[in-house]
Amino acid sequence: MTKRGVGLFAVMCVVWGIPYLLIRIAVRDLSPPTLVFFRTAPAALLLLPLAVRQRSLRAALARWRWVVVYTAVELGVPWLLLSRAEQHLASSTSGLLVAGTPLVAAGVYPIVTRSDRLDWRRLLGLVVGFCGVGAVVGFDLRGADLVSVAEVGITVVGYATGPLIISRKLSELPGLGVITVSLALGALGYAPVALTHLPRHLSAEVVLSVAVLAVVCTAVAFVLFFGLIKEIGPSRSLVITYFNPLVAVLLGCTVLGEPFGAGIAVGLPLILFGSVLATGRPPAPTPGAASEPLLPGPTDGDHPGPERLVDRDHGLVVPGVPGDDGPGLR
Predict the structure, then answer these.
(1) In Å, what is the CA distance from 186 to each residue of 38, 44, 179, 192, 219?
(2) Tens-digit pLDDT profile for residues 10-27
(3) What does the alpha-carbon distance between residue 312 and residue 330 come to, in Å, rounded to a whole number?
(4) Do the domain assignments include residue 230?
């Protein structure tokens, strides 16, 4: 992984490690649709001037059908269901369930792309990493609301599918334009419900939580996440979900003085070791061995092969996708 990839990976581990706690606080006063609106609308307004300045909106609007699909899969449905689930589940339980996203991606991507192969080392890394998350937050789901667990399960499927859409259908477009349009669509979609169900009172704690969710965990985070996907590929980028619940627990220990338990002591090395295995470069093939399609390397995005496309607006080289019908259909 490149230095830039490592930096983006580390930042995203922290930035998307805090929303579980913030959502848990916010749903005390806000209904899930209202929370989604207040998370997407301010973020869209913050990014809009930048997107206009970089002239990145036109390309995203031209591919509006796939942007709508991406919005529903990555934001619209998952954020609503996750907010609903956290009305009944502990944030650590939600973090554990969402940590299954890379495992879903590992099973789905080879079927969809027909060019990825999950080698034993990456599969072992995914399993070890998931076990590490389980050691940190606990596997005990007894007494958990099954409907809420199912809602988080649907969220996981959405989170696993979103980066694949970016890689195969939207990678040619400026990421800033795509996420700005996507957030605006999400805000418009939830506005009728949110604006007619405003709470009478909001605590300062809830206001602060929503502000951080909108600015840091949404506006800033998605710009960085698009860069991470282009740098290391969608399947590897999802390994950040292993670190997210770990970050939440460590923040509790350092900021709130919560005890550093045995689960953290066991889970931390498992998460680190599993992530190294899952995101590392595959071993070089032996001389004379038949070539086979591999999962993405650190500079090849999600798909191998010589085809690469150039972002006309920014001059960024992004991965081409073998099997697609050319840039016009991406």
Answers:
(1) 10, 9, 10, 11, 13
(2) 888 889 888 888 898 999
(3) 14
(4) yes
